[in-house]
Amino acid sequence: GLYPDFVFSLSVDKVQSILGKYFYR
Questions:
Q1: What is the per-residue pLDDT for 13?
Q2: Predicted local confidence at residue 1, as pLDDT
Q3: What dihedral angle (degrees, nearest 10) is formed by the CA atoms of 6, 21, 19, 16?
Q4: pLDDT for the residue 17
Q5: Residue 9: CA atoms inside 13 Å, Cβ hemisphere, count?
Q6: CA 9, chain centre distance (Å)
Q7: What is the pLDDT of residues 1-25, one digit of tens each?
Q8: 1 sits in which H/E element
Q9: For residue 14, what pLDDT is reported?
Q10: Quick check: helix, strand or coil at residue 25?
Q11: DSSP assignment of 5-24, as one string?
Q12: CA distances from 25 to 7, 10, 12, 13, 18 (A)
């Protein structure tokens, strides 16, 4: 479960970055 959790964290990070760019424009 360590590797999938790590990938999931990266995915969440990317999603938050994209959402941040969208909402703070």
A1: 92
A2: 57
A3: 20
A4: 92
A5: 6
A6: 6
A7: 567 888 888 999 999 999 998 887 7
A8: none
A9: 92
A10: coil
A11: HHHHHHHHHHHHHHHHHHHT
A12: 27, 23, 20, 18, 11
Would you state the structure tokens that stand for residue 3, as one six-digit string?
């590797």
Tell me which amino acid residue 13 is: D
Spatial distance between the Cα atoms of 20 and 25, rounded to a whole number of angstroms: 8
| Residues 5, 19: Cα–Cα separation, whole Å | 21
Give the whole-angstrom CA distance, residue 19 versus residue 2. 26
Taking the CA atoms of 3, 4, 6 and 7 in sequence, report the sign of the dihedral they define. positive
